[in-house]
Amino acid sequence: MNGDPKIEMRDVAKAFGTNEVLRGVNLTIHSGESVAIIGGSGTGKSVTLKCILGLLQPDRGEILVDGVDVTRMGGRELEKQRAKFGMLFQGGALFDSLPVWRNVTFGITQGRARDAARMRKVAAENLERVGLDSKILNLRPSELSGGMQKRVALARAIAPRPEIIFFDEPTTGLDPIRADVINDLIVSLVEDLGVTALTITHDMASARKIAHRVAMLYEGRIIWHGPRDRLYDSGNPYVDQFVQGRADGPIR
Ligand SMILES: Nc1ncnc2c1ncn2[C@@H]1O[C@H](COP(=O)(O)OP(=O)(O)OP(=O)(O)O)[C@@H](O)[C@H]1O
Ligand SMILES: [Mg+2]
Predict the structure, then answer these.
(1) CA–CA separation, 137 and 121 (whole Å)
(2) Is 0.70 topped by the overall pTM?
(3) Which of 209, 206, 109, 207 is closest to 156 using CA atoms?
(4) Counting beta carbons within 10 angstroms of the beta carbon of residue 115, is it exposed (0 to 12), middle (13 to 18) or buried (19 or more)?
């Protein structure tokens, strides 16, 4: 972590019709930092990521990436910003018509044909990083288990070696051992390669392992953030209820 802000969200609001999802999100992520966002289903965690990526346009506020506001950008400028990001989508979002190796290298080739032998090698290297065997290079995503698909999607997100990676539920649907392989991978991306990481998760063990800092989204705002070792000792009744998974408490 070198302390410079990599991503700064300032008073970001986003509504869909009358559904006010984000109501003034403020969050700063420093270069080389790993932050986890927690919060209930439907609170706008994925929408937050999509706003930073420029896939959704906020109604209000600023989102600075390396000091420049991406919310008012378009065209080539936005493309240049987007090249800094890798993204693991919640559902995986693999291309079923393409074999695994073409999926993994998609961010590098942008769908264009490139030196196939080299791309297969790049794919194999990235599959190895997520704990998958190169035997699956020629299979289609539909021929893999759900957990394997998730890891192929992860290999695709890291293959272009982006500066910033977003992980939307990286361990959901994985068995506990494989989930921990992914946790270790995220830690090594951050510690060894200096990647800035933003992870959405419902998995508190994962949040505590991978994140330097945890932020909780509730009713459209970040209501608490703090170092990971304060997650179970936040002094915040909303966070307490959430991390302990209690049905009764201030969260309806
Ligand atoms: N493109 C869209 N058009 C209309 N409404 C949307 C759109 N995207 C998201 N929403 C709404 O925004 C709210 C937040 O959705 P979001 O996907 O961010 O939730 P989430 O916090 O990621 O939940 P989960 O933990 O279940 O993934 C939901 O009410 C959803 O219906
Ligand atoms: Mg989501």
Answers:
(1) 10
(2) yes
(3) 109
(4) exposed
Residues having CB within 6 Å of any atom of ligand 1 = 16, 19, 21, 39, 41-47, 90
Q: Return the residue whose CA atom lies nearest to atom 25 of ligand 1.
A: 41
How far is the centre of ligand 2, averaged over its atoms, from the C-alpha of 217 (Å)? 12
Q: Is the pLDDT of residue 94 over 70?
A: yes
pLDDT digits (tens, 9 = 90+) for 143-153: 998 888 888 99
H/E stretch holding 120: helix 116-129
pLDDT at 88 over 90: no
> Which ligand lies nearest the alpha carbon of 43?
1
Give me ligand 2 centre to Cα 168, in Å.
7
Judge whether residue 135 has pLDDT over 80: yes
| Second-level CATH architecture of 1-80+197-252 | 3-Layer(aba) Sandwich (3.40)
Two structure tokens written together for 228: 């990971």
- Compute the CA torsion angle 130, 136, 140, 141 (nearest 10 deg): -30
What is the residue extent of each domain of the chain? 1-80+197-252
E strands present in the chain: 5-16, 19-30, 34-38, 60-65, 68-69, 85-88, 164-168, 196-200, 213-218, 221-227
For residue range 225-238, list pLDDT tens digits in order.
999 999 999 999 99
